[in-house]
Structure prediction request, 609 residues.
Amino acid sequence: MKNLEKKKKIDWKKTIKNNGYMLGFITKVCPGVLIIGIIVTIFSAANSFLLNTYLYQYTLNALQEGKALKTIITNLVFLFIFSISVKFFRNIYNYYRTLKSPKIEAYIQKKLQKKAAEVELACFENASFYDTYVKATAETTNRAFDVMDTMFDIIWTIIMIIATGTLLFTIDPIFLIFAFIPLICTIIVDKKRNRIQYDYHMKTQEMARQRDYVRRTFYLNEFSKEMRLTQMWKVMFKRMHNSIAEMKKIVDQYGYKLMFFAYLFDFVFDIVVDIGSTILASYKTLVAKNMLLGDCFVVLNSLAYLSYCVNGLGTTTFKLDEHSLYIDNLRNFLEYKVKIPEIETAPVVPHFQTLELCNLRFRYSEKNDDTLKHVSFNVKAGEKIAIVGHNGAGKTTLIKLILRLYDPTEGEILLNGKNIKNYRLSSYRNLFGTVFQDYQLFAASIAENVMLRGNITEKDREIVKDSLAKTGIYPKISTLANGIDSVVTKEFDDKGVMFSGGEAQKISIARIFAGNSEIVIMDEPTSALDPIAEQEMYSNMFEACKGKTVIFISHRLSSAAMADKVYLFENGEIVEQGTHHELLARNQKYANMWHKQADTYMDEEDITA
Prediction:
């Protein structure tokens, strides 16, 4: 996989290109926010110059030169009308931008989420890629507006520099020297400072992710029991302590450098610019008497501001470089070439007939050993297939390959005799209804959790109730105030419902009953149920799945007795296959596992009797 964390040297061409890429999000959704913003910025800069600089020079010089009071007042009235108009339209623009911001944010988030849905599962199981994804999503929306505001700042600053610089030049060109001293300082050190700031932010963000994980373990319900009944809270406290200690090291590493840059800029502004220009302007006005009072006021009032603007132009321009560093994370994520892509022109999947696994070999990375080796078997429409074996035998990995969450390292999977890579990905996956061992219930209504979508119709509601009844959980849900409309978890609703592990698993299994998939895949779907409840659940599932193809993983071999074929996995290979009775008759590994489990169940019955 491409190393998405690799840092490259940023040149100005790439910097401009990256920032333009970010502005493209805004212009694609609402170009008016950018275009009108530029116009408002131009007039606002002109207004700021006229009101804060030219106004004082004109008034003081006009009074000193004895111009007519009526003329002075008339010009000031026009100036104030212009100023009020600009501020009025700026407020209108701010309101317009506020209205459009959610639309822009939704577009950006949708683009990120769409890409996240396309990216293969392997990426999210890769720590490096996941860190890049977190960094890309952490501030993407704000970064888009930050880039636009930076561009507005550059436009504003350029106008102020031209207007104020021209005015100072007409007074005395020597004062412009003071204004450009900070720019030289900026050019020399600002890019270095931005790089240090970026490195600091990236390293602290990694520590913050660890810190936030620890925080979640203390307030999320899924961790609450272990955190109270075990010593795991000490482990989390230690991890929190370590992350804070690492954060302190990072601050120690970069803090003094950043402090030095801040002091350097303060020294240049306060000592060189402010004091130096004040001495020169005072001398020309009070001693040499070759400068008008209004001009002196403009110099004292505007030179420091012009100096800040000149320096700000350098700083703001280098801000584009800082944006570019963050945008790189976003572009690397959005431009990542998906290895299992959705090809819209590929054919849709026809009616399912056969699924054939041909000599599959798979490893998660080159550093790992093979998880699956030489796996081959056929599944015909309507068959019930059991995959059994100890933990780590490769059973769940096999399911991931069948669902095409991964592609095999070697071998191929054929659907109706055709490689599954040749079908449209979404169409192929729509064949399957799945329940995983690590299922998830969402902070949504029970009905939405069963149907796995919104816009629940009356017909859907009946399907949900029937599906929940088949899992045995509906009697409890029917007693809830909001029934199937009750929200799962209390994360966003104080009246939300909390379910036990077994109850939550029954809701997840209800998805199978509610679905209309041709192939049902279940990975330890009843792991949280007792043997009797499990047997009843499997009976209901097989009854509901008549005519459908079922592939299920189970540790308890009692459920395998219901299957048409059983495949026993060990160390990534099929070591036995056949019907339940055939495997018992062979009296090998499967039979040995069966008898051990049967003895356990008999002991449990003796204890409870």
Summary: The two ends are 57 Å apart (CA to CA). The mean pLDDT is 83. The chain has three domains: 12-334, 354-440+517-608, 442-498.
